[in-house]
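Example S7 (structure tokens).
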């Protein structure tokens, strides 16, 4: 990919947090939600699952776009690997509470799959960001209040590190953005694989 192309990013994700991370980093991504059925994807483990889903989301949007060499499509998917299980978003409040009863005082690994594809070049780059998350040993009352806030119902792993959930995460090992939903240092490296500088995506 040459440097004389006017690149812009299409984010194949409904996640407001992902869009906000990009915007804060100088990148105004156009959002196109793929609406793919994530349940059809089988994968051996959390790492493979989030990568396959990120790839599926990006490719679904890429297939809808005109062949513009400047468009790069980014798909992401986040899951928590905990105690041999894969936690996406909880099905309901009961599941969120049950998860926290298991997670409190222990740690899990938040995996976020990233897939970038160029429309005309057909080039693509993908990787999984992993961040270890150490949860506080919170009380039953705190779990009940957190679930009642509804925050944990819409996020992978039933927790956030930048919302109410921040009070319940002792520390992390790795990129915080990766937990929120998109790792910018990882995106930079994927773009380099495609001969694109992340600075080329910065708003003027
Ligand atoms: N703000 C915030 N959001 C989080 C955090 N952890 C996970 N999430 C969100 O949880 C959601 C994970 O579900 P995904 O299936 O990856 O993404 P989605 O929101 O369903 O959106 P799509 O990409 O369109 O599927 C994403 O929106 C993440 O941004 C966190 O610590 N903070």
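Recovered sequence:
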């Amino acid at each position: 990919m040459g440097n004389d192309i006017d690149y812009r990013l299409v984010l194949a994700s409904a996640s407001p947090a992902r869009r906000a991370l990009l915007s804060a980093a100088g990148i105004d991504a156009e959002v196109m939600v793929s609406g793919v059925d994530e349940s059809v994807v089988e994968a051996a483990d959390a790492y493979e699952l989030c990568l396959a889903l990120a790839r599926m989301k990006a490719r679904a949007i890429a297939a809808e776009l005109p062949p513009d060499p400047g468009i790069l499509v980014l798909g992401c998917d986040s899951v928590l690997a905990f105690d041999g299980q894969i936690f996406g978003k909880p099905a309901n409040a009961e599941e969120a509470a049950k998860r926290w009863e298991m997670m409190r005082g222990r740690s899990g690994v938040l995996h976020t799959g990233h897939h970038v594809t160029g429309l005309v070049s057909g080039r693509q780059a993908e990787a999984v960001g992993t961040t270890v998350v150490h949860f506080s040993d919170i009380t039953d009352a705190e779990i009940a209040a957190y679930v009642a806030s509804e925050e944990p119902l819409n996020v992978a792993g039933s927790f956030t590190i930048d919302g109410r959930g921040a009070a319940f995460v002792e520390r992390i090992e790795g990129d915080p953005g990766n937990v929120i939903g998109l790792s910018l240092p990882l995106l930079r490296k994927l773009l380099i694989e495609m001969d694109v500088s992340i600075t080329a995506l910065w708003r003027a």
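Notes on this example. The pocket of guanosine-5'-triphosphate is lined by residues 13-15, 17-18, 33, 57, 76-78, 89, 155-156, 160-163, 179-181 (CB under 6 Å).
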